């Protein structure tokens, strides 16, 4: 599999505070790759740096071989990278349908009915809520909407930031099952940031561990699940 996304020596700062320290990471086409780590490790910062905000201070970010390190965010999104951000950030006063149409704008307004049907096949609940305002949805439904809105742009790479955050276990299983089905059916490449290390590593082909802004470990999902230090740090205390 060829590399769809590649980060080499990437650093990022918030003012004088260094958030990312020489990140080397590869996501191959068709893979699900997960990034796990504790709160404050820099996971969301890495996702935002890929999208151009904050800008990488040093290093290089390649998408399909193209250097996008210094590109503005809107240009990066138009290359086929879509993000379902932490906290969902849907448009609360807009309907489900209107939120999904907002996601479609990046890729143009052709084939919108087909794109809507693909989202509804993945998340039937959204079709039932078409005319309902986003802010009145349950947490799980809002997460489905955030993912669906990202998919409306027909991305080649989907960035998912904490999709299980604050959701009930049953809904978490539904979300992760949808991600797996989407990857298997369409070959969509996914980079997943997730605190639920057990679910994420079970889902992912490969994973990286981020500690204090640096990658400390990498391997297949199964390999990382089997590592005693991973189990001690992320899977004990009820997380599994």
TrEMBL record:
<dbReference type="InterPro" id="IPR027417">
    <property type="entry name" value="P-loop_NTPase"/>
</dbReference>
<dbReference type="InterPro" id="IPR017871">
    <property type="entry name" value="ABC_transporter-like_CS"/>
</dbReference>
<dbReference type="GO" id="GO:0016887">
    <property type="term" value="F:ATP hydrolysis activity"/>
</dbReference>
<keyword id="KW-0813">Transport</keyword>
<protein>
    <submittedName>
        <fullName>ABC transporter ATP-binding protein</fullName>
    </submittedName>
</protein>
<comment type="similarity">
    <text>Belongs to the ABC transporter superfamily.</text>
</comment>
<dbReference type="GO" id="GO:0015658">
    <property type="term" value="F:branched-chain amino acid transmembrane transporter activity"/>
</dbReference>
<keyword id="KW-0547">Nucleotide-binding</keyword>
<keyword id="KW-0029">Amino-acid transport</keyword>
<dbReference type="InterPro" id="IPR003439">
    <property type="entry name" value="ABC_transporter-like_ATP-bd"/>
</dbReference>
<dbReference type="GO" id="GO:0015807">
    <property type="term" value="P:L-amino acid transport"/>
</dbReference>
<dbReference type="InterPro" id="IPR030660">
    <property type="entry name" value="ABC_branched_ATPase_LivF/BraG"/>
</dbReference>
<feature type="domain" description="ABC transporter">
    <location>
        <begin position="5"/>
        <end position="237"/>
    </location>
</feature>
<dbReference type="InterPro" id="IPR003593">
    <property type="entry name" value="AAA+_ATPase"/>
</dbReference>
<dbReference type="GO" id="GO:0005524">
    <property type="term" value="F:ATP binding"/>
</dbReference>
<dbReference type="InterPro" id="IPR052156">
    <property type="entry name" value="BCAA_Transport_ATP-bd_LivF"/>
</dbReference>
<dbReference type="Pfam" id="PF00005">
    <property type="entry name" value="ABC_tran"/>
</dbReference>
<keyword id="KW-0067">ATP-binding</keyword>
């Amino acid at each position: 599999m060829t590399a769809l996304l590649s980060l080499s020596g990437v650093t990022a700062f918030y003012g004088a505070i260094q958030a990312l320290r020489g990140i080397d990471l590869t996501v191959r086409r068709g893979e699900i790759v997960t990034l796990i780590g504790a709160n404050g490790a820099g996971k969301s910062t890495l996702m935002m740096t890929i999208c151009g905000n904050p800008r990488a201070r040093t290093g290089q970010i390649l998408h399909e071989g193209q250097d996008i390190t210094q590109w503005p965010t809107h240009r990066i999104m138009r290359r086929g990278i879509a993000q379902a951000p932490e906290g969902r950030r849907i448009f609360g006063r807009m309907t489900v349908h209107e939120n999904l149409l907002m996601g479609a704008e990046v890729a143009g307004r052709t084939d919108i009915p087909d794109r809507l049907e693909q989202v509804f096949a993945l998340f039937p609940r959204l079709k039932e809520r078409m005319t309902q305002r986003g802010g009145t949805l349950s947490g799980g439904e809002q997460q489905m909407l955030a993912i669906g809105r990202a998919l409306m742009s027909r991305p080649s790479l989907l960035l998912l930031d904490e999709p299980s955050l604050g959701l009930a276990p049953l809904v978490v299983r539904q979300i992760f099952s949808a991600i797996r089905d989407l990857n298997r059916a369409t070959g969509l490449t996914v980079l997943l940031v997730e605190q639920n290390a057990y679910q994420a590593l079970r889902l992912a082909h490969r994973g990286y561990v981020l500690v204090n802004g640096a990658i400390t470990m990498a391997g297949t999902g199964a390999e990382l699940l089997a590592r005693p230090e991973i189990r001690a740090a992320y899977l004990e205390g009820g997380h599994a």
